[in-house]
């Protein structure tokens, strides 16, 4: 008991000391936050998606949170943290789903939600912005100027540009434009280092890959050049098919054929669509569903094609930006898992890539082994070689961590790529760079290992000579 009280006193001293120090670093001390409920909220994201991560991360909390509004304030915060060797975990909107922005070692949560300016959209379609800008705001503003996002996560409305670049990979639009790492989608950014004296460094071209998708472990993005696409008038389209194979084949034919202009090509097998209660009138009992965002000019042709493939068109409706109702992207990508978990808390998910030529056999082998404990949810996406492949976020019934790991191992044994979303460090998440350039950047920019510690496990702290 005495130990408990000692600890409480010590930790409250630490909070007070940190809060006082940070209050000097930024112009308004009201932007230094210490209320326990606020710290708890700002220390967590959607980590609870994973039944494996849930018990590991629930109690991890920062000692203090700070909301800078300028790069100078951010530099002052990092300088202070560096001098006192305090961990710093960057936060955009906190919609990551592997606990990417949960501070494993306490310290400071650097909340960038107030650094949210859209500076400009250049005449050749590049958005220049601060990291806290919400993707939904950018999509709306870009469409006013004849542009739109090339790709975005299904968390469009809430997620920030910086959080997407540092924690996400792709989403709606990736069927045409690939992921964040592909096709110069991210042109450049300025990144603030955690060196003895923090600096602002410009990364452009191939150098963006040193920092992209590194979960804020090797620098803080402060200014971003993000490529846009010419805006298209889109129609949301759904068609129901008697079998999963029919729905898959129809959607695949649209996804791989460049003559179709599409932003989304998704397949759900029954009963996944039974989880989508707000739009259940668009679903059909026992049938699989194809969900496509198609250029409105091609909607009639798509309807004819779906009918010829044996489908029933259950909905067509214009997409008019993030406020469209119903916004069918709310049921795609990782939102599908959310609806499944709402229906039955035992569901979780995997992130997979099936082989375009072997996928039917891979589906069969998985069904044979796991029955309906794995439900197929396909998101077609273009890879870096320009090939459209059946990416997948299957809904999986969770029993034990051992069984989940066995399922991952079995997927890999039959040639299905798996990015494991049930780990809390970059290396096993499936997107760590084999050429180690993120690790090399961390050694340069954060030699003391203060940025989001514990998330890049191949990094070892370096002794810094003072
Ligand atoms: C329902 C649901 C659906 C989702 N769908 C998708 C999807 O379709 N595609 C996809 O890619 N992801 C998806 N995600 C994951 C997540 O929503 C996105 O990746 C989102 O873009 C993260 O943005 P954020 O602002 O919430 O980032 P945060 O969660 O705040 O941060 C993500 C990571 O980036 C780091 N970070 C944040 N800002 C910066 C910065 N300025 N500099 C350096 N590091 C920084 C954080 O430390 C953290 O490690 C989904 C998640 C949920 C819960």
Structural overview:
This protein is 29% helix and 22% strand. With 466 residues, the protein is an alpha+beta fold. The strands form four sheets. An eight-stranded antiparallel β-sheet has the order 14-11-13-12-18-19-16-21. Strands 5, 6, 7, 8, 9 and 10 form a six-stranded antiparallel β-sheet that branches. The chain has a four-stranded mixed β-sheet with strand order 1-2-4-3, with helices on both faces. It is globular. The N terminus is likely disordered.
Give a brief outline of the structure.
By secondary structure, the chain is of the alpha+beta class. 29% of the residues lie in helices and 22% in strands.
CA-atom Rg in angstroms: 23 Å
| Low-confidence regions | 1-8
How far the N terminus sits from the C terminus, by CA atoms, comes to 40 Å
* Strand tally: 21
Q: Which distinct ligands sit in these coordinates?
A: flavin-adenine dinucleotide
How are the SSEs ordered, and which strands pair?
Blueprint: H1 2-25, E1 32-33, H2 36-42, H3 53-57, E2 64-66, H4 71-83, E3 88-91, E4 108-111, E5 118-121, E6 126-129, H5 135-144, E7 147-149, H6 161-167, H7 174-177, E8 186-192, E9 200-204, E10 220-230, E11 234-241, H8 244-256, E12 262-268, E13 288-295, H9 299-308, E14 312-318, H10 335-343, E15 347-349, E16 351-353, H11 359-370, E17 374-375, E18 377-382, E19 388-392, E20 395-397, H12 401-413, E21 417-419, H13 437-445
Parallel strand pairs: 2-4, 3-4
Antiparallel strand pairs: 1-2, 5-6, 6-10, 7-10, 8-9, 8-10, 11-13, 11-14, 12-13, 12-18, 15-20, 16-19, 16-21, 17-20, 18-19
Bound molecules: flavin-adenine dinucleotide (FAD).
């Amino acid at each position: 008991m005495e130990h408990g009280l000692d600890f409480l006193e010590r930790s409250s001293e630490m909070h007070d000391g940190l809060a006082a120090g940070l209050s000097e670093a930024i112009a308004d001390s009201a932007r230094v936050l210490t209320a326990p409920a606020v710290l708890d909220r700002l220390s967590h994201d959607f980590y609870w998606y994973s039944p494996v991560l849930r018990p590991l991360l629930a109690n991890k909390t920062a000692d203090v949170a700070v909301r800078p509004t300028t790069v100078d304030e951010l530099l002052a915060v990092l300088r202070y943290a560096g001098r006192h060797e305090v961990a710093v975990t960057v936060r955009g909107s906190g919609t990551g789903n592997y606990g990417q922005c949960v501070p494993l070692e306490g310290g400071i949560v650097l909340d960038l939600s107030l650094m949210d300016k859209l500076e400009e959209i250049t005449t050749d379609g590049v958005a220049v912005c601060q990291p806290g800008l919400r993707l939904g705001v950018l999509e709306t503003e870009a469409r006013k100027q004849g542009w739109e996002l090339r790709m975005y996560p299904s968390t469009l409305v809430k997620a920030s540009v910086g959080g997407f670049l540092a924690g996400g990979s792709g989403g709606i639009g990736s069927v045409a434009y690939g992921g964040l790492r592909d096709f110069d989608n991210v042109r450049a950014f300025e990144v603030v280092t955690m060196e003895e004296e923090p600096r602002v460094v410009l990364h452009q071209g191939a150098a963006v890959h040193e920092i992209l998708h590194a979960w804020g472990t090797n620098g803080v993005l402060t200014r971003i050049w993000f490529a846009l696409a010419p805006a298209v008038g889109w129609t949301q389209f759904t068609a129901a098919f008697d079998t999963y194979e029919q729905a898959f084949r129809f959607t695949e034919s649209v996804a791989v054929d460049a003559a179709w202009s599409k932003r989304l090509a998704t397949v759900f097998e029954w009963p996944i669509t039974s989880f989508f209660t707000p739009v259940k009138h668009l679903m059909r009992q026992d049938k699989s569903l194809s969900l496509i965002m198609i250029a409105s000019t091609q909607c009639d042709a798509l309807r004819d094609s779906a009918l010829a493939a044996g489908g029933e068109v259950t909905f067509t409706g214009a997409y008019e930006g993030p406020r469209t109702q119903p916004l069918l992207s709310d049921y795609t990508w990782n939102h599908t898992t959310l609806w499944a978990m709402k229906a039955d808390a035992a569901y979780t998910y995997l992130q997979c890539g099936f082989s375009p030529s072997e996928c039917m056999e891979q589906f069969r082998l998985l069904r044979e082994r796991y029955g309906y404990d794995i439900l197929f949810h396909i998101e077609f996406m273009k890879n870096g070689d320009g090939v459209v492949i059946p990416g997948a976020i299957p809904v999986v019934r969770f029993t034990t961590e051992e069984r989940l790991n066995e399922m991952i191992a079995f997927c890999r044994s039959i040639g299905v790529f798996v990015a494991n979303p049930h780990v809390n460090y970059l290396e096993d998440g499936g997107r760590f760079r084999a050429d180690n350039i993120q690790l090399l950047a961390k050694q340069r920019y954060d030699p003391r290992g203060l940025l989001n510690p514990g998330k890049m496990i191949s990094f070892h702290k370096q002794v810094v000579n003072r």
